[in-house]
Design goal:
Helix content: over 70%
Number of helices: 6
Order of helices and strands: EEEHEHHHHH
Strand content: 5-15%
Strand order of the largest sheet: 1-2
Structural class: mainly alpha
């Protein structure tokens, strides 16, 4: 003789066969939390039907999947926002304008011109013209006869003035190199810290996903056990 006894569900007040009865204390915590959220009066001493429990199991799995998709969307959005804001140290370093005084600009121009082939060729032409004009045109009776004392004086003065000016430019270039090295260090340090943060976030995300997957596997195993129990009955 078949057992036709029924029970009343605590969440829907509908009657179900006794064989589909599930006590609240046997429901897994995440599923129980969803039920209590919809029905605050539900407790571990109440009971529901397998069909109703399966609905909440499916709701839990769908919530997990939608949450993961939302998490990925939030990550993509944060990356896009960071690209739009462009607050990286690299952009700050590139946007910095170098302020030079008038003397520094003159020193840079003198150093650039003094270290070029234009200066060498033009100065050789000047010396050739100077010597040729005094020796051949003025026949060593001009303003600077041989051995060209005035020319030697001019060359000595140019060398004496050019050397400290070039040193000024070189010192400023060394200062620029030091500042550039500091900025490179800042960029490398920031990159290292961001990589560490990314590793920590990935580890946390993996651990969170593993826990959620374990919960889902438990829910699926419970559903399979319920189906097997119904088949045996």
């Amino acid at each position: 003789m078949k057992n036709n006894s029924t029970f009343k569900s605590a969440i829907s007040n509908l009657s179900f066969p006794e064989k589909e009865k599930i006590w609240g204390k046997s429901i897994h915590d995440p599923i129980l939390g969803l039920i209590v959220k919809d029905h605050p009066s539900f407790s571990e001493d109440d009971c529901i039907a397998v069909k109703e429990l399966n609905l909440y199991r499916q709701k839990y799995i769908s919530n997990y999947l939608s949450t993961e998709i939302g998490t990925l969307s939030d990550l993509e959005k944060s990356v896009i926002d960071s690209l739009k804001e462009d607050k990286s140290i690299v952009s700050i370093v590139e946007d910095e304008q170098e302020l030079r005084s008038f003397g520094q600009k003159i020193a840079d121009k003198v150093a650039d011109f003094g270290g070029s082939w234009t200066f060498i060729i033009s100065f050789l032409l000047f010396i050739v013209v100077w010597i040729g004009a005094n020796v051949y045109i003025l026949v060593n009776k001009g303003f600077d006869p041989y051995p060209f004392i005035l020319l030697n004086l001019i060359l000595s003065c140019i060398a004496a003035l050019q050397a400290p000016v070039i040193m000024m430019s070189q010192n400023r270039q060394e200062e620029k190199d030091r500042n550039r090295a500091k900025k490179d260090y800042m960029i490398n340090l920031k990159s290292e810290l961001e990589i560490r943060m990314i590793h920590d976030k990935i580890d946390h995300l993996i651990m969170h996903q593993q826990q959620e997957l374990i919960e889902i596997q438990k829910v699926q195993i419970e559903m399979m056990n319920d189906i097997l129990n119904q088949i045996k009955k």
